[in-house]
Amino acid sequence: MKSHDQLRTEANVRELIRALRGRLHEYRRTHEEAGIHLNSIDMVIALVEYGMNDVTRRAIRPEEESWFEVGRTLDELYRNSEWHDLVDGYYDLVKFTKKQGSFGGV
């Protein structure tokens, strides 16, 4: 059984994911070209959800880790804009994944 702290943390992450998806949708609705960099946020969301799923719970595989390493580019593109929360959310997901020890899967 999951500890109370883990449940609270995962619940917070699930809420963050919902908020990020909404903001990504809003961005794509208002911008003609979203670019691959925002797709990296989608990939991190999917991998984090896959890792939290009770059935599929698994670590991030080495070939998937590069999706968690694009923060600098996101900072350069979105940090000083109205979309800075996308960058903050991305970093929060990366931090959660590292805290869970989810890197290094086979």
Task: Reconstruct the topology from this structure.
Blueprint: H1 4-30, H2 36-52, H3 71-78, H4 84-99
Helix pairs in contact: 1-2, 1-4, 2-4, 3-4
Structural summary, described in words:
The protein has one domain. By secondary structure, the chain is an all-alpha fold. Helix 1 (4-30) runs antiparallel to helix 2, helix 2 (36-52) packs parallel to helix 4 (84-99) and helix 3 (71-78) runs antiparallel to helix 4. The two termini are 24 Å apart. The protein is built from four helices and no strands. It is globular and about 35 Å long. The model has no long low-confidence stretch (mean pLDDT 88).
Strand fraction? under 5%
Radius of gyration: 14 Å
Mean pLDDT: 88
Q: Largest sheet, if any?
A: none
| Helix and strand composition category | mainly alpha
Order of helices and strands: HHHH
Query: Total strand count, please?
Result: 0
Question: What form results from the Cα inertia axes?
Answer: globular
Number of helices: 4
Cα distance, first to last residue? 24 Å
